[in-house]
Amino acid sequence: MRQDPFGNQGNGGQRRRGGGLFGNIRWVILLGFAVYGGCYYFGNRSVDPYTGEKVLIDSSLNASEEKAMGLQAYQEILAQERPVDPNSQIARQVREIANRLIAKVDVVETSLAQEHGLQPQHFAKDFEWDVNVLQSDEANAFCLPGGKMAVYTGLIPVAQNADALAVVMGHEIAHALLRHGAQRMAQQKLTQIGQMAGAASGMDVQQQQMMMSAMGYGYLLPYARSHETQADEVGLMLAAAACFNPEEAVPLWQRMSQASGGQAPPEFSSTHPNPGTRIQNLQALMPKALEYRQRYCTAGAAAR
Ligand SMILES: [Zn+2]
């Protein structure tokens, strides 16, 4: 995603307390935070219908709040960027691709949920989908919670064709469907609980930084990578069901990694899987994608 719409709120928990006054206090405080963190973690677990995996999403965050946050972020982004004329040929083409993908959200969710023995939740039923093309050299795109999307003009020459563009847009839509933004918020909350625990128990700044970087490498980064892998899978199924050629995904990601040349936007660089691994994953998914295409690409769905 181009920009984190839920940006880290920072934390107000940097107070130092009770240094070495009572040796046991530190452990009591740490235990208290561990219990709090544990309650938060286990109290907010749910099963995602698309992947069948347990995910951490704050149960107090409902769909309309998430949508409102996405909408607010979208308006801020549009105010800063240069959207191209919605009637231009490129804007119309991108909108058509988006519409074809969106039309398959329900059927793909239902199908993936069934594969995991789950019921679809139709979380996206109240999304207010919209897409704009933004003038920029970045080869990037995003879809915010609530369904507001953008494609940067810099992506067009890398995508080269509608099938590849559909793969990228499907990937972005999948992030919104999988509620990855809400999962990151919950993760940030856990991280803040960890920071508060560190500060309150009297760890010095260096110890706190070590703890945070260990969490970053051990937990947050792999987590971000698994989100990318999930978005690749769900996005590929959407593209296939919408009658695009999923096989374009492999050369597309090869071009993306070439084009990125060390200065890729965040969405397509640091948090993304190693390009070789990503391509292997996509190749492994190809039989399923082709099956989705055969099963769900019905007459009238494709303009090709
Ligand atoms: Zn992604």
Automatic annotation (TrEMBL):
<keyword id="KW-0862">Zinc</keyword>
<dbReference type="InterPro" id="IPR051156">
    <property type="entry name" value="Mito/Outer_Membr_Metalloprot"/>
</dbReference>
<keyword id="KW-0645">Protease</keyword>
<dbReference type="GO" id="GO:0051603">
    <property type="term" value="P:proteolysis involved in protein catabolic process"/>
</dbReference>
<dbReference type="Pfam" id="PF01435">
    <property type="entry name" value="Peptidase_M48"/>
</dbReference>
<dbReference type="GO" id="GO:0016020">
    <property type="term" value="C:membrane"/>
</dbReference>
<dbReference type="GO" id="GO:0046872">
    <property type="term" value="F:metal ion binding"/>
</dbReference>
<feature type="domain" description="Peptidase M48">
    <location>
        <begin position="124"/>
        <end position="284"/>
    </location>
</feature>
<keyword id="KW-0378">Hydrolase</keyword>
<dbReference type="InterPro" id="IPR001915">
    <property type="entry name" value="Peptidase_M48"/>
</dbReference>
<protein>
    <submittedName>
        <fullName>Peptidase</fullName>
    </submittedName>
</protein>
<keyword id="KW-0472">Membrane</keyword>
<keyword id="KW-0479">Metal-binding</keyword>
<dbReference type="GO" id="GO:0004222">
    <property type="term" value="F:metalloendopeptidase activity"/>
</dbReference>
<feature type="transmembrane region" description="Helical">
    <location>
        <begin position="21"/>
        <end position="43"/>
    </location>
</feature>
<comment type="similarity">
    <text>Belongs to the peptidase M48 family.</text>
</comment>
<keyword id="KW-0812">Transmembrane</keyword>
<keyword id="KW-1133">Transmembrane helix</keyword>
<keyword id="KW-0482">Metalloprotease</keyword>
